[in-house]
Each structure stands twice: as structure tokens, then as C-alpha cells.
Amino acid sequence: GVQTCALPISGLQCSQALGAGPRTTRSGAASMASKTLSDAVRGGAVAREYDPYADMEIIEDTNTADVVRKLAAIDLGHNRCHQITEDAPPDVDPFALVKEELAPLSREVRSQLEAQHESLTDASQHFFGAGNTREGKRVRPVIVLLMGRATQDASAAEDVLEGNADRQRRLAAITEIIHTASLIHDDVLDAADTRRGGLAVHKKHSNQAAVLSGDFLLARASVALAKLRRTQVVREMAKSLEALVQGELMQLKSSEEERLSLEYYLTKSYCKTASLMAFSCKSAALLSGHELKSEVTVAA
Ligand code: FPP
Ligand code: MG
Questions:
Q1: pTM (2 decimals)?
Q2: Which of 126, 137, 192, 292 has the smallest C-beta neighbourhood within 10 Å, fewest atoms?
């Protein structure tokens, strides 16, 4: 079902075509499948109790200002072991810590971006080429990998830890694919000529190719997400996609009054930049086996 939700920002509306709500708004296909299953075990208590879609709520009604307020209200003081203003910077290079896990990222992503059409493959792989400066800093994958490592339960069995780490590596790549898609689209929206010291995708190819390659990246990221086989992670990452769109919209369309509002600025920045990192970190904690509402996942 298509839903409309009012954003906290005056004049903006967004449409969610994502079948929200676990019981009341599931898609026709979903309720049909559920009905068929009920029919198959007709009459028994099992038919009423078993609901394969109970955990399938994709996204809640969005109120980003609320999300930002709640995030700001979380007190993580007791988790903090470092004071930026008082302590010296820690003697650690986060990039070096995950260097080995990061090294194959571009190659692995490239193998997921083989399209039937050569120019679509070219445009989609533009930022995942081997050994060139277009790869960027890979800040997001580094953060995801570190969060994955930090949230693992060291007392778990070796094969469980390795399985979690493998999914977290795949999540790191997914996060970078989503980020890349958003940059390709952003350069079209901003009519930017360059990105990372080279031509923007739409300048090298065309607007059509850039829009479609961004879409293609999102499509492949969705497949990779589904392959993690963790519904909650799919759900959290879906929220980050919506937040990116919302942030871009807030940046593109704002009144003079909104541009002078600190809350508007923080909400826009959370949506456009922080949300993808936040939802990815949360997902990394989920992939370490923590519950959605656990202290670890909330802190992540
Ligand atoms: C760069 O901002 C843009 C982003 C970080 C997000 C862009 C988001 C969208 C285009 C929404 C669509 C999302 C998806 C997933 C396709 P900037 O223009 O301020 O920075 P820049 O100078 O690096 O371009
Ligand atoms: Mg831009």
C-alpha cells in the first residue's frame, strides 16, 4: 500500500510505497500468501498463530525531527572512555586496523556490478576501479568494520564470529555502494562537473546513464542485503535510504527561515550524511547477534 507521511518540515511530503505496518498494511501478495498458508493448515490453532510476515514491517512512519531529538537525548556518558576536549588523541590509525578486510572491497563490489549493458557496467563501476584515486577514503566501510569488531562477543564460538565478520564485510561494501549511488545522483542534481578529482559520472557518460547506474547500484545493494538473510538489517538499511532522500530534499528545498534554523540544519545533516553511517553501525551490531533494543545496538 502507498502511504503518505507528513515530514516535520513545512511544505514537504514524502510517499512511502513500502507496505508499512506489520498487520494492517501488508501488501496484497503478502496477505494472499499468508491466507494460502492458513488454508493449508485449515482450522487449527496454528493457522491463527503462525504469521510469517509478523517481522516483516519494512519502515515506520517517519518523523525525522523526532528521531534526531531522541538520538540527541540518549545519554551514552557511561560508555565514553575518551574526552575529546581533555584527552590526547588516541595513538591509533583506524584505517590501518581494517586494512586487510578493506583491500578486496573494490574487487568484490566490481564483481557484483556486471550489467548486461557494457556502458551501465562502466558507469556503475566508475568509483570501484582498481588502484585509482576515485575510490575515495572508504570512511563508511572502515566505520562499519570497526563497529562490527567492537560489538562481537569474544566468548562466542570461532565459526559464529567468522560468520558474523563475513556478513559485516558484506555490509561494509553495501554501505559504500549505497553511498556511491547517492553521490552519482547528487552530482546530477547539483550539476557538478567533477567528483574525486575526475569527471562526474553524468559528465563522463550522460544524465541518463548516471541516473540508471545509481539505480543499478541500489538494485545490487538490495540483492546483497537480502543475501545477508537478516530481516532487521534490511529494514534498518531501508530506513537509511529514505533518510538520504529526505536530507537531499531538505537541502534542495528550504525556506529562508528554515535555513536559519539550527534544528533544521542538524536534521538535514543527520539525514544526508550521518544516517547512513548510523543505520550501518546499528546493522553491524545486529550482525554481531545483538537485539535491536539492546544497549550495545543502541550505543552503536
Ligand atoms: C552530497 O552532498 C550528497 C549526499 C551525501 C547524499 C545525496 C543523496 C541523494 C542524492 C538522495 C538519493 C539517495 C540514493 C540512495 C540514491 P553535497 O552535495 O553537499 O556534497 P558534495 O560536495 O560532495 O557533492
Ligand atoms: Mg553535491
A1: 0.80
A2: 137
